[in-house]
Amino acid sequence: MAGISDVTDGENNVDSAQERKKVTELKKERVINGHGDTMDSDQAPSSPVMNGLSDESTSSSSSGDESPVKEKEEKTDKDAEDDAKKEEKEEQEMVLIQDTGFNVKIVVPGMSESIELPVSSMELVQEIHQVLMDREDTCHRTCFSIQLDGTTLDNFAELKSIESLKEGSIIKVVEEPYTVREARIHVRHIRDLLKSIDPADAYNGVDCNSMSFLNVVTSGDILDKKRTKPESIDCTPPDFIMPNSKEGPCYLYILISRNLSGWNPPPGNRKMHGDLLYLYVLTLEEKKYHITASTRGFYVNQSTEDEFNPRSAQQKYLSHSLIDLLSQISPAFKKNFNVLLKKRANKHPFERMTTPYQVYSWMAPMPEHSVDYIRAEDAFSTRLGYEEHIPGQTRDWNEEIQTTRELPRKTLPERLIRERAIFKVHSDFVGAATRGATAVIDGNVMAINPGEEAKMQMFIWNNIFFSLGFDVRDHYKDFGGDAAAYTAPGNDLQGVRAYFSVDNEGLYTLGTVVVDYRGYRVTAQSIIPGILEREQEQSVVYGSIDFGKTVVTSDKYKELLKKTSSQLKIRPHNVLNEKSDAVELYSSLECKGIVGNDQRHYILDLLRTFPPDPNYLKFEDEELSKTMTEMGFPRQFRHKLACLRQELIETFVETRYVAFVRHAAYQFQQLQLQRQNKKADDQTESKNEETKDMKSIEPKPLTNGHSETCDSEDKDEDIETDEAKKIVEALTAGDGQTFEENSKDIVKKAAQAVGSLSDTEFSITFNPDVFQSHVKHAEPEGETFKKEKKLVKDAAEFLVLHQIPSLVNDCMDHTSSPIDGLTLTEAMHNKGINMRYLGKVADVMSKYSSVSYVYDIVVAELITRAAKRLFKIYMQGVDMMSLSSAVSHFLNCFLGSFPSPHAQITAEESKKTRRKNNRKNKAVLVSIDNTEWVNDTPKTIWKKVVDEVQDYFQYTLDCDSIDSALERYNLQRVSLLRQFCLKVGIQILLKEYNLDAKNKQVFYEDDIINVFPIVKNVHPKATDAYHFFTSGQTKIQQGLLREGYELISEALNLLNNVYGPMHAEIAACLRLLARLNYIMGEYGEAMSYQQRAVLMSERVLGIDHPNTITEYAHLALYCFANSQVSIALRLMYRTRYLALYLALLCHGDNHPEVALIDSNIGLILHAAEEYDLSLRFLENALQINSKFHGAKSLKVAMNYHLVARTHSCRGDFRAALQSEKEAFTIYKHMLGEEHDRTKESSECLKHLTQQAVVFQKKMNEIYKGEKSITFPPLQIQTPSIGSVLETLNVVNGIVFVQISPEDIERFKKQMALKSVEKDNELEPKELEDKLSIKEVKEELPNGTMTNGSLETNNSEMALPLD
């Protein structure tokens, strides 16, 4: 949608019920094709509106943006596929909507020339309104209408519905009279314009603003730069990315002050004259003006601070725009505002857009706090933003969340509208819940039960219910008290995510957000209609509210939960109530079903959706296997809510199913062989193979830290898994009459071998109520219940004996390479490993030197997680007045080497404050002595940290202070500081800290700028986009680049529709498109896509997020390919700076990723002929690779070759010869003498030997004193960018397939053709049938082209699954 920007301002909100209803009706009729409404739905509660794409984001999709969309209403027929397809062809209704583009001319008052604007027939008039408000020359206008031939156009009309609108039509902008609302909106918009280049909001984490430094690093937009020659390169790292840089952001001052006047509101007699509100302005010339906003516009009145005189000033300036008026009365304002507009226009649109969720920075400069009445008004208003102008004022979050889920989803356009609405409402809800939770902890919200103890209080704010993570009324007394109460919200959120992803029609979950702030855990939930008007006992129609004494059920809930239980692997089971009546449940006992006043069926309290973890539950009558017992399981844990993760359940079931399939298929094949030739050998072999297969599915004990499972043996099986599955389907699909008893026996044996709960089919589901002492089971001694318990034990054993060694394996073969605590956590969760097993992971990692860097990361994570738990309790006892002192004191004790840091507040002062608070009856959320923190020292804090690691993770740290921890585990203070701040929500002052100081403390109270909330929430997914993305990856893996590129482009298009222009998954999509363009030789396109990926990653993930580092490295490669060598170097320096100084790596450069970064830097410096500098980086990369990949690996050989080449360019042939010999030895050993690499190395050796001999002869002649010695020119080849680029591709794991120019041209033509005509577009489901698309559950690796297939490293991930 060319020319339409998604940068929306708050003034363009739908503000009346009638307009919202109109938008809803329009949405039902519209078919989304690459773009949608550009209105912000933030203030349209009852009808969330799809945000459109900006011109930047839509142009990123190279296909489908302007193509027609076909809706297909499908009929399903389960009898026969062929008949169904014929029937569909005959009866399907084809709806074709032409989406044509054309240009219109916009005439704006006060502008001599008209604006030519490209538009689409699918757009709304509102979108033209949006464009004008974002353009540099019209951005100061807000109150206007758009007219065509004297007729005012309806803002919500589609352009195609306006008959007289055509190519070249002239549209006039007509200034409209102001109302109070429009005047306030105009003033707010001007305020937003004036602060649009100020980074303060990004640093402070306000209004979904976040930081981006890419264009600072590259000194402008890289797409605007011309190709630079290598000769003009400055190879030194820029000052602004050095740690000791004193260069800060420059500020542009436009006005000294702007405020609402104290004369507001206008008195009645002035309202009769059109006065709406009064403003007070102090200009840079230090002149004071009182301004009236009237229905006709803005003018200066004669009022002063002491006298009210609303008459206009002698010089009559009446301007429809406040900007025009200020420009007339202040020349300095006019000059600086023009500069501001140019700077604003130079910013990439991705730098100006808001993110869906707030991103916080752990470091920030000292904020400049200027006067801003709008900020003050928002802060002290219980309403949000513009909601005071909306009828009803507060949003009914529950109604919005549930209504969006009820939207139709049969066709692709319907699904896009539905998913966009769901995502928009959820992101808004997360923002509102976060603000509410912080207000609750800060004491700004009145409790609904103020008479009770503070930690038992509950709150309602903005139609959201808030509760604290404490054990209220001993609810969790038998489960671990406050420890269980703190864990329960997290478990409940996991359950909500699971049911949310199943998306079962008719079953509803609450909007749920968990917020950690200032040591407290707050759960925010949407409110079920009517729940507050009745007792809980009357509301619950399914489940139990008293831990099993009373258990109720409902046929409707059983019907709904039966559908979800199969997908979530939950086994239906019977429990007994206090009357010993059996009640059938399809969930855990604690899960409650409530029918709201809106007649919707809600489920809540999903904390035990998944089975318990018997490794952390001790029962006298239950024992684990001998292997697990020897490892120290079961372990004592501080609560009884430890559950297995959903990822583990799915992996375990999949592994068992593969074993079942192969076992049954093998037996069936043997049965067929027995029929054909009844030989004794076959029978013996069958028996042996059966025994072997039976054993293969059982977890083996650890061998060198790894387990051997059926996976390793499966590779040697004769029967392919797909064929085996077909055989098993045939076996289990029969009705028993057409199959012999032998076939039934085969299935029965296979089922028994894998622990199936059914003898006639594969059935592995989990009873979530096993190992729960408060649950009375119907048949506790029955065989079925024993099988259920064994299955849960097996899954927990599978985690320890298979998944943890599998994680270690992945790290050893570098398929997974965590670089900080966040990536380690993701890797563990993807394997289904809970973080309480971190100590066990550390035990296993410590045995292998090749993964020592991962071990160090694990230890750092253990330390910071233990410190986080201590800090939580530490903060709960701190008075607000002492907050910054307490935080700085904890940081000094935790990270500083100074033995006696000063707490900056005495215990007596703190006690006085406490007594004052008690006298004022202020709520103190905990009753512990809040002066205890003053007496903490580094020694006491570190003793608590070591004890916490031992108690919670069952791991013994061999240290008693920060210094011994750094020395023993190769850690960095700055790494621990960063991880700790991000975990607990601390923002510190951006400055140089001497963290190693031993004679004074490091942190002071002024160094603590802010505390921010840590938010956990559900992440709605774009299902169609996900299928396209994973299908595209599959095609690329198969070497089908054209099909893959098309599918990924479509995925990007759909992602933009669902998420808007900014989202982490869009960044992943852009990254893959950049890589594909690079592989196809489109270096410019690759750089363009990757630039957007970097900007988006910085904005939505953070400037020092691991993914952002990867994005920077990729962009550097593509810039180098575009001959922007200097910029490529800056980007690589930035990458290394982030990796080392922002401490993503726990231990400096002791990590394989640093080797890759240094190899890239060394090669780029080599291309710039900076050989000495290049050599330092390449030798460091060689040293690191030798350590982690082994001295004889091919990576090391490549490093030796690069070092040799650099030595030869320096003229040091002896050193070059030595390095190349090492490379040749490795190539010969690993690849053989006939391999191309070995031959190349051999040729290089010959050349270097010749050069060394010539050089040595001449040197000998000089030593002998012979005169008139002339050196023949040495054959030193200066590197070309092309040759260096080839080497960079090899180093980064990109090997090009041979694609002929004809193929590339044909591909380009097809892509161009597709953007023009796309008459045969299919629905995603039909595409899946046509392309045999299968959902890829695991993230595809990324990066290497081999034999026509693209594989990637872990940095190129599939769209993440929850």
Account of the 3D structure:
The protein is α+β, with helices and mostly antiparallel strands and 1362 residues long. It folds into 6 domains: 10-67 and 98-176, Ubiquitin-like (UB roll) (Roll), CATH 3.10.20; 187-374, 2-Layer Sandwich (copper amine oxidase-like fold), CATH 3.30.2280; 397-613, no CATH class; 646-801, no CATH class; 849-1017, no CATH class; 1151-1297, Alpha Horseshoe (Serine Threonine Protein Phosphatase 5, Tetratricopeptide repeat). Helix content is 46%, strand content 9%. It contains 46 helices and 27 strands. It has a 5-stranded mixed beta sheet with strand order 4-3-7-5-6, covered by helices on one side. A hairpin with a 2-residue loop joins β26 and β27. α13 packs antiparallel against α14 (412-441) and α34 (1041-1059) runs antiparallel to α35. 44% of the residues are buried. Mean pLDDT is 79; it is low at 1-98, 227-231, 238-252, 382-392, 689-718, 735-739, 918-924 and 1316-1362.
